What does this fold into?
Amino acid sequence: MYVHVNAAVSVDGKLSSRRREQIAISGDEDFARMERLRAESDAVVVGIGTVLADDPSLERHDESLGAAPPARVVADSRARTPTDAAILAGDRPTYVLTSEAAPADRRTALERAGATLVVAGDDRVDLSAAFAALEREGVDRLLVEGGGELIFSLFEADLVDELTVYVGSVLMGGRDAPTLADGEGFTEAFPTLDLRDVSRLDDGVVLSYAV
Ligand SMILES: NC(=O)c1ccc[n+]([C@@H]2O[C@H](COP(=O)([O-])OP(=O)(O)OC[C@H]3O[C@@H](n4cnc5c(N)ncnc54)[C@H](OP(=O)(O)O)[C@@H]3O)[C@@H](O)[C@H]2O)c1
It folds into this structure.
């Protein structure tokens, strides 16, 4: 499976403010770029932190892009996704990647709300095993849309093939504001990236890396 991480950060590398509120970092041209990325993907994944903070629908708004809209995926070890979350709305499939630690009643509630559960890992989602299960469901191209905890784990597990970062011309600050990659952080064997392209879009830049 090909895994592409795409995120927008402030000039100081933050995904959102210290209040963890969604902030418009990019503009229309970058939204259009993101829609094209979604159109090329079989599925789009976010972490439960992003679902709880932003309640994203992961909808594709530009119908002219053809192709079936991608399946939606959330990494959610304890099955905390609210049953009325936008990610579960509508007829498109939603996969909840969860772990053995998810309480039975939450699992049942999510299945009743239409989700397909993928159980992988004891305490936390085993991302390698869960992605292998998605691949068996026909997901060959997976787009990761954040947040920073999930992105760090994906780099840690060596699962990322491509990284695209939109750097907006805004400064957020805040030592506790989420960044592109949070988690424990690396102390050695830092993942190195191969810069493939730099372009200007809206009032910011798009940096494209192979990993
Ligand atoms: N600017 C952008 O492009 C962008 C994009 C997305 C999000 N955001 C912002 O980012 C913030 C949310 O980011 P976040 O870092 O708090 O949350 P996140 O990465 O969306 O979700 C993290 C959660 O995912 C769950 N998870 C399950 N398995 C995991 C694994 N193997 N590794 C890591 N996490 C796993 C964990 O909760 P459990 O253990 O309970 O499962 C973890 O706390 C929000 O403020 C949002 O607005 C910005």
